[in-house]
Amino acid sequence: MLVAAVKTGFIKAIKTAFMLLKIVLPIYALVVIFRYSPGMALLQDLFSPAMKLFNLPGDAIIPIITGFFTDEYGTIAVLSQLNLTAAQITTVAMIVLVAHSVPVEAAIAQKVGLNFVKFTTLRLVMAILIGLLIGWMGVLLSW
Questions:
Q1: pLDDT value of position 107
Q2: Residue closest to 78 by CA, chosen among 19, 36, 31
Q3: 29-75, pLDDT tens digit by residue?
Q4: Nearest C-alpha neighbor of 103 from the set 120, 124, 89
Q5: Count of domains forming the chain
Q6: What's the rounded Cα separation, in Å, for the pair 129 and 56?
Q7: How many CA atoms lie within 13 A of 123 on its CB side?
Q8: Residue 55, Cβ neighbours under 10 Å: how many?
Q9: Residue 54, domain member (yes or no)
Q10: Domain ranges, residue 49
Q11: Which candidate, 137, 134, 51, 56, places its Cα nearest to that of 94?
Q12: In this structure, is residue 2 part of a structural domain?
């Protein structure tokens, strides 16, 4: 019985690892390519003032946008390409944990009867508020 449980667990672990690789590797590759393209500089310049409110560099917008449209694993893949401090990574992680996979989850919420606009707005507003709070806590704790 123990051998069967271990075998089943191992097979499930391998399947999960391959499923995660199908998500993380393409996003990682796209971010590497995008990082060295003119688009990265454009996004950094565009979002740099807003990111300063969260005590983040301009390029932190990339994992945040990735998280809004995909999931936490995509965000991790992007974060691995950036040189952020622990406090900055925590800020990005908290923003994305509150508002990840927004289009998918909003569609599911609508199917169960929630208002699409209210649900999406609430998640985005809460992500911003938590990001501001965590970003400033990181500054205060680094004194």
A1: 79
A2: 31
A3: 777 787 788 887 888 889 999 999 999 999 899 899 888 888 888 88
A4: 120
A5: 1
A6: 14
A7: 20
A8: 20
A9: yes
A10: 25-141
A11: 134
A12: no
CA angle 25, 70, 12 (to 5 degrees): 60
Predicted confidence at residue 142, as pLDDT, reads 72
Q: Is residue 19 part of a domain?
A: no
**pLDDT score at 84:** 93
Do 142 and 91 form a contact (C-beta atoms < 8 A)?
A: no
pLDDT value at residue 143: 58
How does pLDDT run across 75-126, given as a tens digit for each residue?
Answer: 888 898 889 999 999 999 999 999 988 887 887 888 888 998 999 999 999 9
Tokens of residue 91, six digits: 């800020």
- Pairwise CA distance, residues 82 & 143, whole Å: 23
Mean pLDDT estimate for the chain: 87
**DSSP for residue 101:** S
75 part of a folded domain: yes
Query: Which of these, 123, 135, 125, lies nearest to 55 by C-alpha position?
Result: 135
Q: Answer for the pair 31, 62: CB distance below 8 angstroms, yes or no.
A: yes
Q: Which residue has the higher pLDDT, 10 or 139?
A: 10
Q: Which two tokens stand for residue 30?
A: 């796209």
- pLDDT the model gives residue 47: 92
